[in-house]
Amino acid sequence: MENILVAGANGTTGKKIVTLLESSQYFNPVAMVRKKEQQEQFEKRNIKTVLADLEEDVSHTTENIDKVIFAAGSGGKKVKEVDENGAIKLIDASKNTKVKKFIMLSSMGADNPEEAKDLKEYLQAKHNADVYLRDSNLPFSIVRPGSLTDDKGKGKIELSEKLNKSGEISRDDVAQTLVRVLHDSATINETFEIIKGDTLIGKAIPN
Where would I find the NAD(P)-binding domain in this sequence (predicted)? Predict the structure, then answer.
């Protein structure tokens, strides 16, 4: 069983990721949370937690961690501090402890933030974090979903390096995609976009 650090475990998508990992026969979730009161919900399910604030030191978070999913977000409030610098700090920590794979939950539009009509600052922060990860020499996958919805997941997506269209996707299916990418047989050192579609997630993820 591999230990998977989930940054942003208390977020809407993060919680879904942790639940999927909890029932996995391959992975153990380690929930990274910012506040002590957020730990209890995980600990009572016997899920390990680590306390860390992405605006501060995170060097301790990747000890005994095999792979990382970065699903944290500032909600648009502190994009430079959390979405960019927080991600960069966690990438550095992962390098120092020789993490085997770093999976970044990014966003469609992060490849060309200057073309965005809105969310420009957020997309620029995601872009900078993605570039830093690609240049880090860590094995990585960067997953860029369309607009997130709270619809029930269908387990099917449309995936391409560049979809050249906008679209939406459920958080359920994003979480499933991120967990699928954890597998060693899944794509490494690739960046791709996803929206809802007709291809089963297990088939859509490039091997």
Answer: 8-184
